[in-house]
Amino acid sequence: MTGSERPRRVRVSFDSDTASAVGEGTLGIALPGAPARDADAVFFSDLVRAQLRLAVACLIGFVVVSAMLTAGVVVIAATVDPPVFGVPLSWLLQAYAYYPIIVLFAIVFARSAGRNERRFRALGDGGHEGPMR
Amino acid sequence: MTVALALGAVLLVLAATIVLGGMGVRLSRTTGDFFVASRSVRPVWNASAISGEYLSAGTFLGLSGLVLLVGADGFWFPIGYAAGYLLLLLFVAAPLRRSGAYTIPDFIEARLDSRAVRRVTSLLVIVIGWLYIVPQLHGAALTLQVVANLPAWVGAVVVAVVVSGLVAAGGMRAITVVQAMQYWVKLLALMIPAVLMLMVLADREPTLEPLQTFPVELGPAATDPYSTVSLMIALLLGTIGLPHVLVRFYTSPDGGSARRTTVLVVVMIGLFYAVSGTLALIARVAAPDLAQAGVADTVVLALPSRILPEPIGMIVTAIVVAGAFAAFLATSSGLVVSLAGVISQDVFDGSVRSFRLSAVLCVIVPLAVALLTGPEALVSSVGTVFLVAATSLTPVILLGVWWRGLTARGSMAGMLVGALTVGASIIASAVLGADAGGLAPLLVQPAAWAIPLVTAVIVLVSRLDRRGAPVRADRYLTRLHLPERHDEVG
After folding, report:
1. Who among A23, A51, A105 is closest to B86 (CB)?
2. Is residue B468 included in any domain, yes or no?
3. Which of A34, A77, A100 lies closest to B220 in CB terms?
4. pLDDT, tens only, A33-82
5. What is the ipTM of this complex?
6. Is B394 within the bounds of a domain?
7. Residue numbers in A near B213 (CB within 8 A)
8. How many domains does chain B have?
9. Is the dihedral of CA B437, B443, B448, B452 positive or negative?
């Protein structure tokens, strides 16, 4: 009999947590998976707070700048309002001036949010890119 | 001659839509292709497609009509639509891309772990989608009626048949290519006429003084602060709750790319609105006689032949008609893809076959409504859709992304209160009209008080819910906010 000499059967399990955290694809209703690695978890709540702070700051900035522009347009409309190419300046500002402000805040947010995430990754991977804001 | 050219332009857009859609159909082979183009669309294409589907009949035809009727207040609508994308970017674009869901009901169910709340969400998504398709069909009916003297039903039926056929055949992959093309068609269809008309007008002596064309009482100084602020709140937040907007982020490869795509979209739709606004200003100069309800929305179609010499006027009119049809087709097809996704998953088994059946089903209801009702003011019809989305769905989505304590009962209470409040306001303002007195602005523009009310209801009911937040809430929130490991965010 050689049975006792055969290597013992060992149960091998698949570590789904580790696997799903890396480049996971999703199909259908994606149920929660992809839990953070330990290092990520340490900084994760900081990242969420930083992203929310950034979003709220951009929103407030946008509202304040837009309100100032609106006030300026109303003052111009009610006072001097010089025609430019036959159209009152206040109408031109109302038609065109808000879009550059929207684009500006969109770019600022996207860049800053990306930076927050890169810092988070650097911290999680043991890098030293500096503390998260 | 004008009729032949205009109909030729419509046929050209329809043919381009069907050919490009057909190319997409050959690429659509999996369920993922049908629902979200397998999440592989590059940012520039995706941004063109998102912009193509977002810019509807409301701004293509409606903006000029509205500015002609009500003056500078009309410009608040496109400003709100563009700023709505900023809010989408700030609060939900990347997290929702990471959510792993196909539709808003998928997201809500996965976040709150509840089938009941999913069903309520699906119902709202379908109603909002239907409400949004109706003005597109009205726009198509109006256009063919004005330029080709065809009965109103023809335009609506043509758009409905092409859209449902295309979506059923090719799903999201086909639609992405088509919508990207349609953005550029729409932009050029307004930009070419705008440039040509400005060149002609620059050499002409104005017949009216600037203050007669742009009177102070219709200018920016005359705006009503409450109504404007409330409208802006509805438009800014409404974008987040639109079903066809959110599903587009699932076609970005990752959260960072969803953000970059959104920035591009903001640039693209801002450019379009600036051009569309130029036509609105030209309309006040060249067509003040069209400033009547029901007629004003046709002003963009009438301008080229009034200002430009023949045959250029006829050709440019045909270009504008082509752009208008691109607008009706793009927005309707985006909406139908989203609705078909929801219906096929909630009513049927979520297969490609059920998606196709759902695509046809979800065009029939808005087509019936469009045929039974007359075209209202296009911009304000679209504005009402934003209002319904902003009060019923947006608070739940925002809190779902950012507040761990949200519960299924809280969400359900908020959605019901939001839908009922906004529905009651719309009906009350229609029934009471001027009799509402001081309440009239609150009923016409309820967003400023209704959205805080809905948010308070959600928070209160969630706090009182003894079942508490779902056990998996933390894991799901981690998924939403954790950057992808392969990522290249920036």
Report:
1. A105
2. no
3. A77
4. 444 455 556 677 888 889 999 999 999 999 999 999 999 999 998 888 88
5. 0.88
6. no
7. 86
8. 1
9. positive
